[in-house]
């Protein structure tokens, strides 16, 4: 992993810590929070907009726009698939199973509870404090991506965003496939009963292939040996089957009830979060990807601060029984692995190196001659040409109005995404 030294001003790290501190004021002083948070948002937005005319890499951003949009579409499709998996896993055994099945023992939580009795109360209060949440990590990444306007992060910012979105989408797909293939007891057994209105009894598949063999070790051994469902289950309990047209195949996965079965899309929208999405933690995946992006793109002490926030968030997930310890641990190393695997998207190191080498080959003879003539001004001019060639090619072929409309549209869209991300994820 590459650690970059941040600019001497360290402005991005200060802005990140200020954002987290101001947002935590909602717990300490709601009145001051109501004053300071809009002011901080306005200052950050105005500073970013003021840098738009001086940004030199809009051509690179233009080329990264399509991959960024494609990554966003891929991310939305991954979230749709995850929502389907969450609802299916929660619904297949029915609410009675969720209510009656105790959660698994978690030694990580035991250690945290034991530490409460050993550590000073001040430290325990800090560990329990809701300092950081999902929306904070998303906003920290937004601030990191916007910092390309100040040359704090290597351009293009949309390329960094595309890598972040693409990596998160891959992580979400893997997560959905993982927990859709195995149904584990929830860390919060009350959650499914509070959030979902699925039938209380198991799905007909579970009635045939699971329920008759789940209560006796001998029947489990017998079905393994026979490799066939042998129990006489009689008549299955029926399912409510609304007319969803071409999407009717989703009925077996969503298990709608009469009170909520009019629209398959409304069921998927309510499936976010779930109660069996245990392996691995989606919150921790977002946190780790943000920390990895921050470490690689900016580095310095501020990235250490972000990793400390990740660790704080992990222990709170375990402490508050939102996830088991294994869910957080797996999310950490899966997030690191996935981020390292998507390095081909950003930053474009190889392309810049190739352009520099190509330009050096073209001016090699002129550079040697200028050095022989002790023409230092000429050497400087030639090296300046090499440096300019390192940056993205000129956008002269594109009309000027396109290169003015594109930055304005990009900034407006990015700020809109920031607002929507904060609004939709502010509740965790």
UniProtKB/TrEMBL annotation:
The keyword Lipid metabolism applies. Residues 274-341 form the Sphingomyelin synthase-like domain. Pfam families: PAP2_C (PF14360). It is a multi-pass membrane protein. InterPro entries: Sphingomyelin_synth-like, Sphingomyelin_synth-like_dom. GO terms for biological process: sphingolipid metabolic process. GO terms for molecular function: transferase activity. It comes from the Eukaryota. The keyword Cell cycle does not apply. Belongs to the sphingomyelin synthase family. This is Sphingomyelin synthase-like domain-containing protein. It comes from Eucalyptus globulus.
């Amino acid at each position: 992993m590459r650690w970059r030294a941040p600019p001497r001003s360290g402005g991005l790290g200060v802005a990140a810590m200020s954002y987290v501190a101001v947002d935590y004021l909602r717990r300490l002083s709601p009145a001051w929070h109501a004053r300071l948070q809009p002011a901080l948002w306005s200052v950050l937005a105005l500073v970013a907009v003021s840098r738009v005319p001086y940004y030199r890499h809009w051509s690179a951003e233009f080329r990264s726009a399509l991959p960024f949009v494609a990554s966003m579409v891929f991310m939305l499709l991954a979230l749709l698939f995850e929502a389907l998996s969450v609802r299916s896993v929660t619904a297949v055994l029915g609410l009675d199973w969720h209510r009656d099945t105790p959660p698994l023992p978690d030694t990580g939580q035991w250690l945290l509870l034991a530490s409460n009795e050993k550590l000073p109360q001040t430290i325990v209060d800090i560990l329990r404090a809701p300092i950081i949440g999902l929306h904070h990590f998303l906003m920290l990444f937004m601030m990191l991506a916007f910092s390309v306007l100040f040359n704090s992060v290597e351009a293009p910012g949309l390329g960094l965003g595309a890598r972040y979105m693409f990596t998160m989408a891959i992580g979400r797909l893997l997560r959905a496939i993982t927990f859709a293939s195995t149904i584990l007891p929830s860390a919060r057994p009350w959650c499914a009963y509070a959030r979902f209105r699925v039938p209380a009894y198991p799905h007909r598949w579970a009635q045939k292939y699971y329920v008759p063999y789940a209560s006796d070790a001998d029947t489990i051994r017998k079905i393994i040996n026979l490799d066939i469902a042998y129990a006489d289950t009689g008549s299955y309990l029926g399912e409510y089957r609304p007319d969803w047209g071409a999407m009717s195949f989703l009925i077996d996965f969503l298990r709608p009830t009469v009170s909520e079965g009019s629209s398959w899309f409304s069921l998927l929208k309510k499936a976010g979060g779930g109660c069996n999405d245990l392996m691995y933690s989606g919150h921790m995946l977002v946190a780790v990807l943000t920390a990895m992006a921050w470490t690689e793109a900016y580095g310095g002490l501020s990235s250490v601060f972000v990793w400390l926030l990740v660790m704080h968030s992990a222990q709170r997930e375990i402490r508050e029984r939102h996830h088991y310890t294994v869910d957080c641990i797996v999310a950490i190393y899966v997030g690191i692995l996935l981020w390292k695997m998507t390095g081909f998207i950003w930053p474009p190191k190889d392309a810049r190196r190739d352009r520099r080498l190509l330009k050096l080959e073209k001016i090699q003879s002129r550079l040697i001659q200028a050095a022989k003539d002790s023409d230092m001004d000429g050497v400087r001019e030639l090296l300046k040409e090499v440096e300019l060639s390192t940056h993205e090619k000129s956008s002269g072929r594109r009309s000027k109005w396109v290169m003015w409309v594109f930055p304005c549209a990009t900034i407006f869209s990015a700020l809109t995404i920031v607002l929507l991300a904060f609004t939709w994820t502010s509740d965790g």
